[in-house]
Specification:
Blueprint (H helix, E strand, L loop, with lengths): L2 E2 L2 E7 L1 H17 L6 E6 L3 H13 L5 E10 L7 E6 L9 E9 L3 H12 L4 E9 L12 E5 L22 E5 L1
Parallel strand pairs: 3-4, 3-6, 6-7, 7-8
Antiparallel strand pairs: 1-2, 2-9, 4-5
Helix pairs in contact: 1-2
The structure holds inosinic acid (IMP) and magnesium ion (MG).
The site of magnesium ion (MG) has 5 residues, from strand 6.
Length: about 180
């Protein structure tokens, strides 16, 4: 079990497993033959997954434009969560195929908010790629078109995901133990 500072981390998905899965996801995405594709990475949590996935997509033959959006969900419980746009993209999405990339799909509120925003702006299609799907926590009708792994109902960190801004740097996904 790796130790980070004083904490032991239980590895759920190793760097190798994630890299292998990213190649498969990239192939699946490229097979959809999106037109004039704009990839939007939802910050902050998706930054490492997006960086790896778009390079895997390049290797699979895709030529997407890449943008970033910062949305944040406030409220303690999943029920009371409210999503806000903190920093917008610069590109016009009108008539384009859009692929939203996020780290983890939980209640679905973050991705529902972002997808509806892009559809309102006239995107031709909006697809969703997530590394992890915590489907037992879903509170909306949102599903991912491309998902890396089903995630057990633990609070996970690493590979971009944090607890209090810590642990984003880990190259794997894990659970913090004492
Ligand atoms: P949703 O809006 O409830 O689907 O929540 C999705 C967002 O919550 C993700 O983009 C993450 O930033 C965050 N999140 C949900 N579960 C976890 C977790 O286990 N670890 C770290 N962040 C999480
Ligand atoms: Mg997030």
């Amino acid at each position: 079990m790796p130790k980070v500072g004083e904490k032991n981390i239980d590895v759920l998905f190793s760097a190798q497993e994630i890299a292998k899965r990213n190649l498969e996801l990239a192939q699946d995405i490229v097979a959809k033959r999106f037109d004039n594709l704009l990839v939007i990475s939802i910050l902050k949590g998706s930054f490492i997954f997006a960086a790896d996935l778009i390079r895997a997509m390049h290797d699979a033959g895709a030529e997407p434009d890449v943008e970033f959006i910062t949305v944040s969900s406030y409220g303690k419980g999943t029920e009371s969560k409210e999503v806000r746009l903190l920093r917008d993209i610069d590109s016009d999405v009108h008539g384009r195929d859009v692929l939203l990339i996020d780290d983890i799909l939980e209640s679905g509120k973050t991705l529902k908010f972002t997808r509806e925003l892009m559809l309102e702006r006239g995107a031709r299609s909006v697809s969703i790629a997530v590394l992890l799907d915590k489907s037992v926590k879903r509170k909306t009708d949102i599903e991912a078109d491309f998902k890396g792994f089903e995630c057990p109902d633990y609070f996970v960190v690493g590979y971009g995901m944090d607890v209090g801004h810590s642990f984003r740097q880990l190259p794997y996904v894990g659970v913090v133990r004492d």
